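User: My notes are a mess, but here's the protein and nicotinamide-adenine-dinucleotide's SMILES. Can you give me a structure?
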Amino acid sequence: MGGCGVAQDKGACTNTIIVIGAGTMGAGIAASAAAAGYAVALVESAASARERAAAGLTKTLGRLLPEGTAAADAFARISLVESLAQAPPGDLYIEAVPELLDLKHTVFAELDRVAPAPALLATNTSSLAVSEIAKATGRPQNVVGIHFFNPPALMKLVEVVRAEQSSEESVRAAVEFVERLGKVPVVVRDTPGFIVNRVARPYYLEALRAIDAGTADAESVDAILEGLGFKMGPCRLMDLIGLDVNLATTRSVYEATQLERLRPSPLQERMVAEGRLGRKSARGFYDYGK
Ligand SMILES: NC(=O)c1ccc[n+]([C@@H]2O[C@H](COP(=O)([O-])OP(=O)(O)OC[C@H]3O[C@@H](n4cnc5c(N)ncnc54)[C@H](O)[C@@H]3O)[C@@H](O)[C@H]2O)c1
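Assistant: No problem, the inputs look usable. Here's the predicted complex:
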């Protein structure tokens, strides 16, 4: 990298962040960056998702910045556009499109064409190898993982993933960016599920097995674990994350580790096939009405 790094003083650098994908994660990441003073372009190909994101941004920024006109000022720093061609040149690009390697490769190949040479290129992938994603660019040293947790505007922890080819400068710039958002970066190696998703797999999988075996229903499992001090029971949490997103993560961690105890659950496979994806489809373990 070099030149206009993402962590430089605002006066010396335009500090423009481009977020690709305005779904559950991208919109929250954009809100966090705008709240921290960055100019943000949020790139979303689906018109319906752009509409949803615009409404969500107003709400999230109102929560993050309740004082005076700060939320409105932050909202004004975000432009919501349809394609990368419509976005200004960025210092940092954060990809948050669905968890499909081919799609990530397409996005990173396009970033290679449009992003200025010193730009930091990041992926928010939960479970794909960042080193694999980086292969789609001619500048893999500029690629890192910046893995936010859901809901991204509120969760403090962020995993900064050092891929095989990431330069020290790229990792440092990512850490400084995360700190500037007021969050807590943890640098992790590019291993399946990184730290958090690997540690969390048994939390979901044991709950799914207990429910599938008829040992307990979702409400009881959640009540027990919340009673033990977990903020959200595994079923409520899967509904929030999206069962499809959660299953995709389990599949990639299982494929990479081949650990039998991390094998995806047939119950979750059935629920995803039936479109019971959680809050986003209004039905998962719980019913969310309209
Ligand atoms: N949902 C979670 O809890 C969570 C947590 C951490 C990380 N992640 C990771 O973040 C990434 C995004 O997940 P999500 O849950 O926000 O997905 P999502 O499906 O809610 O949103 C993805 C968005 O990307 C858009 N999109 C697809 N292709 C595009 C393109 N070429 N250009 C612009 N927009 C495009 C889609 O229209 C959609 O709105 C995934 O890699 C996922 O694994 C998700």
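Residues 212 and 267 are 6 Å apart (CA to CA).
User: Great, I'll file this with my notes.
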